[in-house]
Amino acid sequence: MPCRGLAKFVIISAPVRDSINPPEKRLSATPHPSHANAAHSLDTLGRPLRDLRISVTDRCNFRCVYCMPKEVFGKDYQFLEHRELLSFEEITRLARIIKRHGIEKIRLTGGEPLIRRNIEGLVAMLAAIPGLDLTLTTNGSLLAKKAVALKAAGLKRITVSLDSLDDAVFMKMNDVDFPVTRVLEGIEAAAAAGLAPVKINMVVKRGVNDHSVLQMARHFRGSGHILRFIEYMDVGHTNGWRMDDVVTAREIVDMINAESPLEPADAHYRGEVAKRWRYLDGSGEIGVIASVTQAFCRDCTRARLSTEGRLFTCLFATAGHELKPLLRGGADDDAIAAKIGEVWRARGDRYSEIRTAATGSLKKIEMSYIGG
Known about the structure:
single chain; 372 residues; alpha/beta; TIM Barrel; 12 helices; disordered N terminus
């Protein structure tokens, strides 16, 4: 069963909140005013399908402790064989079909998407679809080599994961001894290629890299890049998540504000996951993604396509919907579009709003499999 069944669980404890923003109203089946006239398929809670995240590989060259811990994803771990993956042609066909339901943005993810051979070829194929904002998230390890080709292929922007500027901390977190300097080189190469503004995502885990928050803020302030801090999430079932390990968005903002005063900034669009804060002196902005303490389920417009063709309607899903048999079984575009519409219209996911002991014990899909 898809994650929409979570709404039926009894709530054992209220979700954690902090005071960055006033509490959101409860979800309603009535579409938001900004959604009402859009040519989108709407789910059971009135949310449109606007964003598609496509995982192009389940493999990664890092073993980040919060995503692909080495104890689980070791040398003997069985990744998907190449024949099981969707081809670039199949991915592009699905993107064109899903666009009928109103998607406006595609983000390529992984695993690590830049290790997929000729990824710039897929970028070019997707960039040929009119009316799409095409982006990609990477750990930055191969970005210095790939940035120019990605931009030439039609990529609009890029997001880079970087959890500390301290080499010892960063190497401990990526667990493959990859140095910070090479990620920074990738960030600058992306900016020089025109993939700007570059967004840098930092997952903050208490006792591991929370002391790096101010160092990161100082480094990227005034750079033209946008640094975003992400609360450590209970994605998947292998990272040993505990609420005690979460450094809340409120704590992060207070920490930075005490040194460099901030003020809240308006969202670029409804449903933007990061809450924006800008420096009062005009030297840039930061974002905080508070999916644990400030759930944003009510405006979630994202679907996720796994690398072998399963459609997921939530990052915290327990199962997906098979599309590959339709692709390879001769179904026409209309039939596939009908299936996708059926899945989305039945969607009622709001895991982060009802996060409880009951939901927390579910065996959720790993983030490395469907992307963050």
